Each structure stands twice: as C-alpha cells, then as structure tokens.
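2024-03-11 09:14:02 DEBUG pipeline.ingest accepted 1 chain
2024-03-11 09:14:02 DEBUG pipeline.ingest length=163
2024-03-11 09:14:03 DEBUG pipeline.predict start
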Amino acid sequence: MTKSDKSKHNICIASIKRSTMKPYDFKWTKFYESNSDFQDSYSGLQLSLTEDELVICSTVIDYDNYSIVTTQRLITKEKGIENSGDLDRATDKLYGDFKGHKGDTFTFGLVQMDDGGDLKYFIETGKASMIMIHGVRTLIKSQQMTNTQADNVTRIWNRKSES
C-alpha cells in the first residue's frame, strides 16, 4: 500500500511518543514534528530532501557520525562516509547490542535492504534508544498497512499519549 509521506510521518511520531519516556531532552537523539524543527537544530547539516519527504528522527553525534530517518529513507554517516537506502521492502535485522555495554553511549541497529545489503544506524543508549528503534520499526511496518489502518493506529496512539 502506498501511503503519503505525511501519513508515514504521523504514525512514526505517534509510535515514538507512545514508547519514549518524557522528557525528550536526550543528548544526541531527537524526533521532529516538522522539517523546520530539524533545520533549526542542525543548520550546518545539509539534507537534500524530495518535495514531500519529512524528517522523522535522528541521532546526530557530530557532522561525521549521524543517522537520520525520513519518510523515504535511512541515512547514516559514519566516520565521514555516508550511506543511505530506501526503507520500502526493508526488514529489521537488529536493534542494537545493549547487553554488557553499560558504559557505551551508542550502539548500532541494522536494517536489511530490499537488495539484500545491510544498512546500520546509530542508536543512543538508554531511554533515547526508543526514538530510533520505533522510528525505523514503525516506518518499515507501516508499509504493510492500509491508509485507513495507519490513520486509525495514529489516532489511537495519540489519544493514549495525551492521557
């Protein structure tokens, strides 16, 4: 089912808010209600977005090490080398290695792309981890939902988050 970028954005933000403990003031990880929120936070980071593409969430350690989830792709720059991929028909492979890494401030998640290749992404450890995990997971799962299902789930999750 093809969904609009706005629909994908809405369901991902609702999922993130539902699963992430407040306050949302994490060191490196944020989610965005609008693209201008992202631009305001990282004016030095230039993203080339398509007309309807919306930024969902990111973990930005510095300008050479970051991951950004948009409604159309996952972008990771590690040690200055950027990789990106379309999340249509991608599958979750790993949500990071949190066992025995208490002192680590980040780990990596892994997505298997449609072409069989893997794309990793930064996950800030601790409570912040829910933002990237649920951003990626929900975006991938939403590909299988109808527009009506996505709208209904978003509405329910938003209601529960507000109560």
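2024-03-11 09:14:41 DEBUG pipeline.report The chain has one domain: 5-85+94-154.
2024-03-11 09:14:41 DEBUG pipeline.predict end
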